[in-house]
Amino acid sequence: xxxxxxxxxxxxxxxxxxxxxxxxxxxxxxxxxxxxxxxxxxxxxxxxxxxxxxxxxxxxxxxxxxxxxxxxxxxxxxxxxxxxxxxxxxxxxxxxxxxxxxxxxxxxxxxxxxxxxxxxxxxxxxxxxxxxxxxxxxxxxxxxxxxxxxxxxxxxxxxxxxxxxxxxxxxxxxxxxxxxxxxxxxxxxxxxxxxxxxxxxxxxxxxxxxxxxxxxxxxxxxxxxxxxxxxxxxxxxxxxxxxxxxxxxxxxxxxxxxxxxxxxxxxxxxxxxxxxxxxxxxxxxxxxxxxxxxxxxxxxxxxxxxxxxxxxxxxxxxxxxxxxxxxxxxxxxxxxxxxxxxxxxxxxxxxxxxxxxxxxxxxxxxxxxxxxxxxxxxxxxxxxx
Length: 385
Prior knowledge:
single chain, 385 residues, alpha/beta, Rossmann fold, formyl-coa transferase, domain 3, 2 domains, two-stranded parallel ribbon, globular, CoA-Trfase_III_dom_1_sf, succinate-hydroxymethylglutarate CoA-transferase activity, CoA-Trfase_fam_III, CoA-transferase_III_domain
């Protein structure tokens, strides 16, 4: 997301295996024969989240690699890491060590369970956090077992929160700089800070109205509701006016005056009978026919599409949510684009996801001013690729 918005993002990868997700295939985008790369190609998983980044293949298990990272930390605005708490201190890459080198550094730590608390030393993955912090319990069919969401949604929401926090920290840093320039207080104050983002916190936050209902009522949640219908079209009668439109469209006008369905609270109380009546009515037509019935009626409705259909959907394409990229090693690729759109800025794809170590020389020479001989020495030591 930060890369989409124009940030120069340098991805630090292990010089031999790289980012773990490079191996999370199939499917792979195969390498072109003339690319010089070996192996099955670039994994679709990796390609999905690594556009607009430069790959620096560097090992910080060697003193030389640590020195390079220290120099980078002095030059950069933000460092993002997702190691277990205290794991980086032995390499002097923890926040206290790097903030001593660059007091203005924004240091963002993303972990499963945060820097504090009884679970802080645990490794955390999306599916475990979905289970432990409520999401799986409210996801699935009404009478079925708890299920995970189809994508790693807790990873995604944590990334969103992290990106937002980083932007706020950068804005706060610039604000304090301006105050300092204008002769305000805090002349010696460090402008950077440490951001503590965790999957568990972000999952708890995104329980949203369900969490609020539990806190206000003091009762357990109401469990799983699936999609609360049994058809391949979704209908939204979320208030009295929309419910009346829905009743007319499915040829059940009597529902509008039925004493059990006069208000939203009553409809919720009698939802089983109501859903059964609507579901029976919707079985009388195909999805395409129902889409025609609801067109222009002013109420929310939607077909239930598979992912490939969604990606080929005319609205998806009209909104430029799938873009073509020319990958140096794999050729033409289609990638999901950023959803952010600005009236006065061009954001989104600027460069395809990098191959492992593609930008090592560029970063070391261009950003740090290293000479070729110095870079080659690092390669001999195995510190970079």
